[in-house]
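Hey L., structure's done. Input below.
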Amino acid sequence: MQIFIWKARVRKVLLPHFSCHSLRHTFTTRICETGVNVKVIQDALGYKNISTTLNICTDVTKELKKKEFDGLDVYFQADRKEA
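Output:
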């Protein structure tokens, strides 16, 4: 009976379950997306191996992919105009 009463008092949670580790990965990905140097990210997060940082930063979003490829389009279009 006590368990039922306790459960009735629990509020709905608006956020999904996540861990501190998930937040760390999200933070790393987001600062990578802003263009922060990967060595700075490595040092700030205390990773000994640059490959660890790079593996996390490769979890790029669709927006970052689009932005980077749009930049390539601009570069190639400018190259054509100069030729």
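Helices lie at 2-9, 20-33, 38-45, 50-57, 62-82. Residues 62-82 form the longest helix (21 residues).

-- N.
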